[in-house]
Amino acid sequence: MSDIELPESDATVSTETADGDDRPLRVESLTKTFGGILAVDSATFAVERGSITGLIGPNGAGKSTTFNLITGVHEPDSGRIYFDGEDITGLQPHRVAERGLVRTFQITRELGEMTVLENMLLAFQNQRGEALWRAVLPGVRGSVVDQERELLERAWETLELFEIDHLAHEEAGTLSGGQRKLLELSRALLTDPELLLLDEPMAGVNPTLEGKLLERIHDLTDRGYTFLIVEHDMDVIMENCERVIVMHQGSVLADGPPAAIQADERVIEAYLGGEV
Amino acid sequence: MTSDDVGDQDESRTQTREHEASQVATDGGTSATLPLETDAGARPRWQVDLGYIVLTTVAIYALITVLGLLTGLGVGGIFRQLQTVTFLAAAYALVVLALNLHWGYTGLFNIGVAGFMAVGAYGMAVLTAPPEGTTTPGLGLPLWIGIPFGVLLAGLVGLIVVLPALRIRADYFAIVTLAFAEVIRLTINSGALADFELLGRELGTGGGRGINFPLLESAIPRWVLYQGGDPAQGANVVGLQILTVTNQLGIERTVVESAVYTSILVVLVVIVFALLVRTANSPFGRLLKGIREDELATKSLGKNTDLVKIKVFVLGCAIMGLAGIFWQGRNGYVDPDAFLPIITFYIFIALIIGGSGSNTGSVVGALVFAGVLFEGPPYVQRIVTQQVDLPRPATVYDGVVALGAFDPLPLLGYFVGQLANVRFILFGVILILLMIYRPDGLLGHRSEPASPLHLSAEQSPADSRSAKRGGDDDGGDSSGGSDSDSDSDSDSAGVDTSTDNGDDDPLDSNPDDSTPDRGEPDE
Amino acid sequence: MGDTTEFTWEQWFGVLLLAGVGVLILDVLRRLVVGDLGVSTFSTFLWRGLVDGLIIGLAAVGLSMTYSILRFANFSHGDLVTTGAFTGWTAAWLIGGAGVTGLGSRLLLNADGSTSARELNLHVYAEPVAIVAGLVIAAAATVLVALAIDKLVYKRMRDAGGIPLLIASVGVALALRYVIVFFYGERTRGIVRSSPSIDHSLLFWTDSLVVHELVMVVSAVSLMLGLHGLLQYTKLGTAMRAMADNKDLALITGIPTERVILATWVIGAGLTGVAGYLIVLEQETLNFNTGWFLLLLIFAAVILGGIGSIYGAIAGGLIIGLADNMMLVWISGDLTRVAAFLLMILIFIFRPQGLFGGVETA
Question: Known Pfam families for this protein (chain A) (predicted)?
């Protein structure tokens, strides 16, 4: 397989494609070094709207770093990231999330001493009561309480959808690994995202639940959500993704439909190290 | 899942409710969950918490009174002690609440508390000190300008400190704030700012000399009691009521004034407490908790955590400044030695005793610290020296030598004489014991809801749709709640298999594990 | 924004810092040439900076080691300095003061105020044995105290995380300090007689060399050299460096953690105790707050050198010592510490990995 399908690599195109483009996330020549080690090496790829895209690669290929660069945890040394046609390179993580590009983490980051319900309620954007004065002042607090009731209803719905509503009052730190993954995903959904970056969502999740999770993800894509998933389980990737991006030693090695990836000699060589 | 597991599940839910109830009865032993009122969830949380604070206050007052009566300290002595303890406890409560906002809620490990208190007190003192006739002249402005100025200045300095320190680790933040506090104290102490001229007026920090300013303890009560704040003009409406009663009882005016001063401070504490409880029980409070638990996760949910941290830090520093003003206002004098770093650690001990992360705990901790730990040993010392004529050897060596001659009294006498210092050993030991055995504080692990709603009483709509009938059962055992739980489970058998996959997770202590079919045995 | 050689914040800070230091050095030279600053004043500042710096460095080594290997900021470190000072000088008084004053007075370092340092006449020429014995006892006693504290407190909270450990160390600091007060009292007391001095033309930088300062410098430098040898040429040193780098990895690779922790306390507390002892040799007085007041300066040295780096801590100590004294050229003595602390804060914010910037440990 030849090179990546390059998106319109013209800088001029990128600004005006906001509506017509069906690739909400585009990453161009992303590069990042840590202490002299090249973690991501001019990676370029794009994610199509309403699709599930897989991002795979051997350990240390730069997948998680790429996620961190896209979501603003780290600033890239060079390269650009566009989301819905707008340049989001180097934005703070919360700015990125505000725009609808929301992530989960490889090692779950539940808020341990908060209940599951509190974890969920935190996720809603632009809550009235997030302004200190509204939270405190007597006259205004009523509207905060009203909104809280609405949010609570939505939180319950989502918890039921992911079938963790019975855990609502547990502190998130006491949940099992799989439950935490569910909590993180459902919490991320409450931010009203457009595109979700899931970092190994199936790690530590048992097969039954994995099936259910994948079902949910497919439901959500039907409703217009877009997913970019880092996953180690090849079967999950090949069976569920429309497209697969392969990273190796920090750069994009291949990019295409699962069948093409599976047949790609270089991928087999680099990724599987000749094992299979 | 087996019925046992369902029970477990449910028990933990009822436990939270029981816990609230039991807090009134016990000091929250880890496993002590007295099923006092099984349906305590229905009781407003603030009542439970208020009960807690009142109970602690009453207990400490009773202790002081009984000790005083038993040893014949006299009504006057007891009253003075109660007054001192109340004042100190209130002053501590104010700072501890502010620190709880920083550290307990937001995880901002600020050990520069003394510095911000100093800024508040000095800001006020420089503005209100008389321009002439003292060693350190000030601007001679009225208190109603000076006090808000001190508070604002403390907040402003807080802003200057927190801005560069937003991104650094918690333990680095600690050292940076401590260093800032020392920079503030040493700068105040230095000759550089001791005297200077500003717009033709002489003013300064006075260096080691300190500043004399109007005695708040009499100036503020006078505004409450007398017309125009001037005793010569006679009592006002409020003052008339109070003074008539106190005159009949034969209480001196100065005593009345200082009681009024303490009362005003208590009112301030109540206001700040209410403010902070509202802050905590709100979406804003949720943000704070989120930042404390995991800032990056909170950021990744689209929250501008930096802004929140700045707001919280500035607000807390302003409250610390206010506390500094009232604390030193009792003396009408400030000097840099009042703000040694050890003050900060007092505040920390009080907060840790009560349990960081809880406003109620903050107040309880302040009461226990000021009333028992800090004022207790000198009080006991006073009583003992009044009652018993112990020998007072100059050194511990003399005491030990006497002990060798089978006379334990000199050593005991030395110990009693050293009680004021021994209490610091006690502080240290208590801090260590708390960190090892009870890091959640005396009240134990508390879950104050980060929401204006009483979250832990909220039921899943699915639960309430189908399981209302189970609600009137005795909530104490698991049967009442397990009905509702199993109902919601009938359509969710799949998830529970999910819960048994955490084998690879060392933190996974959930009892649900490895028991696939939950709910089945129940109905 | 060009993608080429962009300066990061940190680098800008480094450049600014270097420029600032350069300007100050030029200014010192200018003052020396013009005559604003006497050569002898200058060399006195320099020498005193070196002496202070070595002592701070010695104490900082211990703090840096515990910070990196036990992973918490030990706020009781200053009181270990005090512990060394009190125990060491108690030993020196016991030996050197025999026959001059009573046992009670010697045991409690004149807690009853009955003797004076003048009467005791304790200085290095008069009582060399007492002084050396005190130094050894200072190290040994501080090690014992540190190990006891570790066993009682820190060992129970090995995995508690940095902040709980920090808080516990505050408790340790308070308890330790006031146990000392309980026995020795709160008074600041004279301990050592004024040092003899040497007058010699070979000592070009000063008119008269204070012998006690010379003793300090020689002791500190030889201990540092010994430490260097230990770290570089023994298995223990390798293990310690590995632990500082990565505790988990060290565990997996079979480095016996508890033994390394033990070694950390022995070396760290020993050097700290000696530092406390030597400080008194220079100051001639002692107070229960002596170490506590030094704590932030020691922290500053550790942070300057980069937490975990032993050579960094020594260098950091020297920089802090020199800065604290050289600043006198420009600002008054009551502000030099303010300058040192501000420098530390700046380093924390812009270069938390320390001035010499690597992950370099030991």
Answer: ABC_tran, BCA_ABC_TP_C
Q: How far is CA B387 from CA B68, B71, B72, B74, in A?
A: 11, 7, 9, 13
pTM of the model: 0.85
Identify the CA nearest to A42 among candidates A66, A7, A8, A67: A66
Q: Are A23 and A83 in contact (CB under 8 A)?
A: no
pLDDT in tens, C49-73: 999 999 999 999 999 988 888 889 9
Q: Does C336 or C123 have the greater pLDDT score?
A: C336
With an 8 Å Cβ cutoff, is C186 touching chain B?
yes
| pLDDT > 70? residue C316 | yes
Q: How many whole angstroms separate alpha carbon A248 and alpha carbon A260?
A: 17
Out of B302, B320, B344, pick the residue that ends a domain: B344
Q: Does domain C37-350 have CATH number 1.20.1070?
A: no
Q: Is B15 on the interface with A (CB under 8 A)?
A: no
Q: Which of residues 104-133 of A touch B (CB under 8 A)?
A: 105, 109-115, 117-118, 121-123, 125, 127-132
Position B509 in a domain: yes
Q: Rounded to an integer, what distance in angstroms lies between the CA atom of residue B491 and that of residue C56?
A: 68
Domain co-membership, B334 together with B471:
no
Which residue type sits at C61?
V
Q: What is the residue extent of each domain of chain A?
A: 25-110+191-273, 111-174
Q: Which of B279, B296, B501 sits opposite A205 (nearest CB)?
A: B501
Architecture of the domain delimited by A25-110+191-273: 3-Layer(aba) Sandwich (3.40)
Residue written as token pair 């050396």: C132
At A252, list the tokens.
């994009």
Residue B425 lies in a domain: no
How many Å separate Cα B433 from the centre of its chain? Answer: 19
Q: Residues B339-385: pLDDT tens digits? A: 999 999 999 999 999 998 899 999 999 999 999 999 889 888 888 88
Dist CA C13 CA B118 (whole Å): 30
Cβ of C338 within 8 Å of Cβ of B424? The answer is no
Contacts of C277 (CB under 8 A, 6+ apart): C84, C85, C88, C89, C134, C135, C138, C139
Q: Which of A115, A133, A176, A190 to mutate to test binding with chain B, by most B CBs within 10 Å of its CB?
A: A176
DSSP-assigned beta bridge partners for residue C189: C286
Q: Phi then psi for C295, rounded to 5 degrees?
A: -55, -45
Nearest by CB to residue C156, choosing from B191, B397, B436, is B436
User: Which 390-449 residues of chain B touch chain A by CB within 8 A?
Assistant: 447, 449
Across the interface, do B456 and A209 touch by the CB < 8 Å criterion? no
Distance from CA of B430 to the nearest CA of A (A): 25
Chain A adjacent subunits, 3+ CB pairs under 8 A:
B
The tally of domains found in chain B comes to 2
Separation between Cα atoms, residue A219 and residue A222, nearest integer Å = 5
Report the C-alpha gap between B192 and B208 in whole angstroms. Answer: 11
Cβ distance of C348 and B191 shorter than 8 Å? no
Chain B residues touching C104 at Cβ < 8 A: 395, 397-398, 401
**Closest Cα in chain A, distance from residue B16 (Å):** 9
Residue type, B238: V
Token couple for C65: 């080691």
Which of C156, C157, C167, C294 has the most B C-beta neighbours within 10 Å, making it the best mutation to test the interface with B?
Answer: C167
DSSP C48-109: HHHHHHHHHHHHHHHHHHHHHHT-S--TTHHHHHHHHHHHHHHHHHHHHTTTTS-HHHHHTT
| ipTM of predicted assembly, 2 dp | 0.88
The conformational region for residue C200 under phi > 0 = left, psi -120 to 50 = alpha, else beta, is beta
Domain-ending residue, one of B329, B344, B359: B344
pLDDT tens for each residue of A105-114: 988 898 989 9
Domain that holds residue B311: 108-344
